[in-house]
Amino acid sequence: QENYWIKTDSLFKYVQPVASLQFWSTYTMGEKDQLTDNGPMESVQDRLNFLIRRARIGFKGKPYKKLSYAVMIQYDNMGKDRFSAVRGSTNTGTLGILDAYATWRISKNEMASLTVGYFHPQISRECVTGDLLVNSFDKSPTQAYIRQHITGKGYGRATGINLGGLTSKHLVTIDYNVGIFSNNTTSEEFTETSGKYWSPLVVDRVTFTVGDTEKKNYAINYDANNYYSKRKGITVGLNSSVQGKTDIFTSNYAGGFDVLFNYGRWNIDGEWMYMERHTEAQTYNMKAGHIRAGYNLIIKDKIFLEPCVMVTNFEGDQGAQFSGEDRMLDVGVNWYLNKKNCKLSLHYITQQGHGDNNYTDDITFKKGDFAGLAFVLLM
Amino acid sequence: QENYWIKTDSLFKYVQPVASLQFWSTYTMGEKDQLTDNGPMESVQDRLNFLIRRARIGFKGKPYKKLSYAVMIQYDNMGKDRFSAVRGSTNTGTLGILDAYATWRISKNEMASLTVGYFHPQISRECVTGDLLVNSFDKSPTQAYIRQHITGKGYGRATGINLGGLTSKHLVTIDYNVGIFSNNTTSEEFTETSGKYWSPLVVDRVTFTVGDTEKKNYAINYDANNYYSKRKGITVGLNSSVQGKTDIFTSNYAGGFDVLFNYGRWNIDGEWMYMERHTEAQTYNMKAGHIRAGYNLIIKDKIFLEPCVMVTNFEGDQGAQFSGEDRMLDVGVNWYLNKKNCKLSLHYITQQGHGDNNYTDDITFKKGDFAGLAFVLLM
Amino acid sequence: QENYWIKTDSLFKYVQPVASLQFWSTYTMGEKDQLTDNGPMESVQDRLNFLIRRARIGFKGKPYKKLSYAVMIQYDNMGKDRFSAVRGSTNTGTLGILDAYATWRISKNEMASLTVGYFHPQISRECVTGDLLVNSFDKSPTQAYIRQHITGKGYGRATGINLGGLTSKHLVTIDYNVGIFSNNTTSEEFTETSGKYWSPLVVDRVTFTVGDTEKKNYAINYDANNYYSKRKGITVGLNSSVQGKTDIFTSNYAGGFDVLFNYGRWNIDGEWMYMERHTEAQTYNMKAGHIRAGYNLIIKDKIFLEPCVMVTNFEGDQGAQFSGEDRMLDVGVNWYLNKKNCKLSLHYITQQGHGDNNYTDDITFKKGDFAGLAFVLLM
């Protein structure tokens, strides 16, 4: 082989397919919707709904020693009843690109990797953690506000370049990420452009870990927040994003912190994010956060359960992108059949709020409460 | 390994990709369409049309000993000419989810398996048989009426849970399925909800086989109706579905029977379904069925042919979802190059009818007749 | 095994997944757009844009000794800013079918193969060459006019049947392709039909090579135009297409020639196509072509560079599908890390023109110039 061709990875044979499925059976109570034009909100009948809450298929590979690649397709919310209490859009069969990126390790150790493509700007632990991996029934609804504020997209991905890495010494690990993105959702009319004015979106996140590391190898994906009683460690993350003048704001900020604490059987995590948007006339603030706790419980050496509780809170100024209050309480139990790869969950979710946000707009819809049984399968 | 993690299947290595293609060359004669607003139906020019009638790609796997998984994507009707005599919609490049489910065998034998996800409610042999596997040129057009009546969707899938199994004793085999589904197509306005009122869709099917079994292992998929002269057996299936009050009906029923008869070279199958829908004011009935016969013919020990004929019939009340009559006659020959996996077919299809259905609405279109050459490849 | 079943290929194990990614960072200067209804064209702010210019995933396989199969899905232009100077549409997450075909070799040698499905009618070297393989920053913008003229589709694919093959003797190789397609974009109103009137689209291409062959095995795909200084040969191609009466024209023609010349370090190619469309009232002509040259440069036996320049030109009659002039100059350098499979490129593109075409319509947009950094990864 000529010297000018880089060597392919000796283990690389083909692009490897991956697939996952999160199947939900939910029973919704107290959902309200505006059923006639300009009419009042009416209660719809309580209902059972089977849905594929999330499903992904994709390919990943590592063609060269330092270069890995992933592309993931989603067909989330298949079969979701528009009048169920579950948040998010409905889907009657559509597929979409979720992630498509390549990561090139540029240092000999884990200190520096460059990621390019369409992926999560690295901000907010809840946003960047794998969707099927959290121990609450669903991810905290607060992540929707954070994503919409920063990227303007429900899925929160953007195209750009991220530099990141991690380094450990004794009991302390530092992990960092800084990325620059072009954010095509800041036009008045067309979401596929940044409008007449353009500013880059710059996002960064640094985490400090004391005790067992959160992960040994650098990656832009974050694993389950349950380490099955194997980890004793705490990780604190500091997040920020900034974007300058565009058609829809003069500047836009987010900042906050998050915590992951695993100590034997206890799994506790939380996050608080502060969001600020300036227009020529005014400044709007939003705040979003959650706290979540689980406790690993092994029954007769055969059944690995985790009772879990989560509370979430969102508050937004009148006139902001989202306003009023949105609160959720999730209480349930997870049964890990094969760690995160095969899991059953039974949870009960209550929701309340007011204003104009994802819980209600006080005119056309108000989400109900629901009980849910989930089956998660990762392959 | 800890006792509380279930073991992965020893043969499981990766998610396996699958693909299939059904390529048609058709020549349409006598198609009529309304070419101008409020104008008369005019004859369009007879035409050749090449189309990918059906194409699927997907992944399947068996991560655990008793758990299997499948996801299938369709991009059917690529290149279909709107004015060809072939039924169904057109497609200029769109993909959609066809199936996504997991099946968990809960008994030690084949007696009981639970399937969850987005899949065919198990009713009507013609509906649940693999689309590329029938010995007529296409599946019977009657299945479109059955699917629309029960699930309100062209592809006939729904999200839900199905319990099924099979058991054999001597020459008799019984196969059963019963499923509950949430059916999001029963709102007046929005197909992505069941509307203000909700009722579950309950579907069941039982088959009785005398002689060779139809299949040895339980599955929610049904194979080709040609057993290449290896089977001597008859299978009779009884089907029913019921759904209660929703926004668009007060109750909705379907019932019927189907038969598959293979005796050496003869392959005969048929189906008759009766559909009933009650609204507050009235009751509407529809009936649909087909009969199909093929005869295996081996020429010089080298060419495996099957001459085949199918007649289909649909009748619906005035005011029902579909009304009038729709009849098709299909005469042709299949050349099995490698059983169902590689097949050529040459058929001639004539169609007639009246009313408001998939053959004609008596105003804007009337399907023509066509000759077709098909190439089917399964991988 | 019975004699009537064809044998599967001994090496065939499964459908093999493939993936590729072309990631661009561009900086656009001087883009103009109409930002208000009926307003003037205004300069938008110069901008950085990260985009996945092209990305493909798919499956391919060779189930039988003489039969191969490919299906390819695209999710091009993810993250493209509408106001960047890059041509083509925008994409916020949609997937589409790019190719789906099977090729059956009917001769013992490479003389004759039949391809059926949805694929490129074999005309114009620039159209049929792999999108991520050219040595200019992007494919020549002239291919868009050729494709639109012949098939009416941006991606230029159609459903049909192609017969092709190649044969070599001494220093001369002849490669031919002739195909018939049903072209569903010739209706006044509906692109999913050929309208009231139908005519087949017939396309052919013959190439003559002197010296090293362009490819040893017949295929409907064309490789990179850089042979990494290994080829000494010239290939000249003659192209033509013809279609008769449809709703939108009485007849439609294209014809032209293309050249690929590789001699050691030099890689030169070019193309000239003439397009003619007759309606009952009039005849419209368009012309499109490009010339492109690269020179392979190896630095210290470690870095394989190719400085490259391309000029393109389009001209169309007033009233034709596209009119006026559209010119591009591309100057840049490619760094081949692992031949075509891993490549970095840095180019500068200037564009100019007038009329109603892909560069400008003189009313709502005028493309800017841009500098671009590309990363291409094929797996």
Describe the structure.
Three copies of one chain form a homotrimer. Chain A has one domain: Porin. Chain A is 4% helix and 54% strand. Chain A contains two helices and 20 strands. The first copy, chain A, has helices spanning 125-128, 142-151, and strands at 16-29, 32-34, 41-43, 47-64, 67-74, 96-105, 113-119, 158-169, 172-182, 201-211, 232-243, 251-263, 266-278, 283-295, 297-299, 303-316, 324-336, 342-354, 365-366, 369-378. Chain A has a 16-stranded antiparallel beta barrel. In chain A, strands 3-2-19 form a three-stranded antiparallel sheet, with no helix packed on it. In chain A, a hairpin with a 4-residue loop joins strand 13 and strand 14. The model of chain A has no long low-confidence stretch (mean pLDDT 95). The interface between A and B is large, with 47 and 47 residues.
How would you briefly describe this protein structure?
Chain A has 379 residues and is mainly beta. Helices cover 4% and strands 54% of the residues of chain A.
